[in-house]
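Example for tutorial group B:
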């Protein structure tokens, strides 16, 4: 998997987690404006989770269709990481 894609997925997970924390923290707040904002935020979190699930399923399908390519990419990434961590 591409490093940029990994970073994007990691950041998206962080954003979703932070949004969920914010929704929990503002649960006691009231008012029509707050309610609209919370509803929009909850919908955005649901949509982001659905996109992450779809992306994971698509990635799983790609790995199943091209297992040796996935093994090669994982081995290359592991080798690169090992070289970088081995340098002191």
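The residue assignment follows.
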């Amino acid at each position: 998997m591409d490093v940029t894609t990994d970073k994007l997925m990691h950041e998206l997970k962080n954003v979703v987690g932070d949004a969920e924390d914010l929704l929990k923290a503002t649960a006691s707040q009231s008012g029509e404006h707050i309610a609209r904002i919370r509803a929009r935020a909850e919908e955005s979190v649901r949509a982001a989770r659905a996109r992450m699930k779809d992306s994971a399923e698509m990635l799983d399908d790609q790995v199943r269709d091209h297992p040796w390519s996935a093994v090669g990419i994982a081995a290359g990434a592991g080798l690169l990481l090992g070289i970088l961590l081995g340098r002191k």
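The radius of gyration is 19 Å. Compare this with the pattern of hydrophobic and polar residues in the output above.
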